[in-house]
Amino acid sequence: MSETTSQASQPGTLPAEPPQAQLKSRRKLPVVWLVPLVTLLIAGWLIFDTLQKRGPEITIYFEDGIGIKDGGDIRYRGVKVGEINSIGLSANLEKVVVKARLDKSAENLAEEGSKFWIVRPEISLTHVTGLSTIATGSFIAAEPGASTKPATTFEGLAGAPVLETDNNDLLIEFHTPTQGSINAGDPILYREVTVGKVTHTRLTDSADSVKIFATVFHKYAHLVHDNSIFWNASGIDFNFKDLFDASIDFQSIESILAGGIAFVNPPGDGTPVKTGAKFKLLPDRPDELLEEINPLPGLHISLFAEKVGAVSVNDPVYYRDFQVGKVEDVKLAQNAASVEISVLIQPEYEQLIRSNTVFWNASGIDANFGLFSGVSIDVESLRSLIAGGIALATPPDDGKAVEAGHRFNLYDKPQKEWANWAPHIRLPESSEGETTILTDPAAQSTAAGGSSTGSTEEASSGSTEGQATGDQGAEDQANVAPSTPPLPKGITLQTSNFGVRPEAVQEALVDLGFSNITNIQEKGNYIYLDAYWVDRPVKLEIDAAAGRIKELK
Hints:
Number of domains: 4
Number of helices: 8
Oligomer: single chain
Radius of gyration: 47 Å
């Protein structure tokens, strides 16, 4: 055994080096505790964020709560800005109470004047709204008010409010006894073009009439004048008075389906109106007034009778059972001693009316009961029996052409000789929108109406034509040198709806052999000019309506 070992083992002897201390690390927090800590932090953040986004609570009273439910949306311009918390009834059971919480971003909705309404699916002829709610359910829509004063209680609207339009649009108002078929969204029509919309309707304060509010789009606002005439253009107007000429009248396809309001501006010094202008709304289209504003083309004359009989507005006017015009108006004459009947003769038949033309009432049946002759019944025609009307006849001797406003007597019934009258009057012949003016005044007597006189009329036409040609030829031979051919008596012209152009007359005259055409003047249907026929100067009067050439002495 060594010496060192023996010394260390002896009692009371200290070791040569003291023992070293052992350091140990403290135990770490278990990882499992991190999960609830993170959850707590997230929950705290969500609570803070929710409180930050949380807006005021509001209460809305509605007449009914159809379609809405707890948790439903409150939306502004299609964006969710709140949520319905509860739905209940008021203490008196008269209202539905909706409590909702707005988002912080929409807290301005909690101010006086804000509007709330329930959006439900609505389908009409003019528009479809709320269609998406069929799948998602109804919601409450909101529109902020103009006030900045806070409010938490609101009266819900029965429907969407009338929102403000473009500031440049024209807002106008109509007054009418009844609303008829006019509804919000119906068009405002000008010449069948939509220039505005009806915004809403309501009763007047006295509840004795209806107010209709409309907006006219900015680009069309200048069309509305202080003398504009508006009428209800809704629906279809059926006219079955004449079974041979039944008519269906409507303003436009849109007005058939949706209704509408149409208007027109009469001639005159109308002034464009400003927002707030008020107008009377007529229940029907004012045909008579429109005809005064835009008169129909043709010859307007007046007939006078002791009594009106069965004649009424729009009754036909016949020549040989062929309609050539219509009755425009029936009224008492100014002296109240007779009845005045305004008649329009269509432009292509104006030549039938002469100063000696006669008119009679062709309406109904004339029955004659004789003791020995039996019963005779005279009916002008089946058309006149059903629809009523006025008939006319013109004698064969030349009467003067009449102008608008000429006055005639209206007889109760015709005389027998009137049926045999066969005047030689030429009428225009239409061809694809143009009118060829026939020139020979005796070429076709039957053009003035029917074949009731048969071969007699044709024979008369032929003999008269030959006689007229012969007489005129003799007259020409007496007035001009034998070497100069007779002056043409007629001219064929092509006319349009705007009448005969002087240039067309000049060209046609050149084709006939005239030259040096000067000093052309227009006076109504007549054209006056100077020209040379072969080798002599002539002054001519051209009847553009009949196509006749007359030399002035």
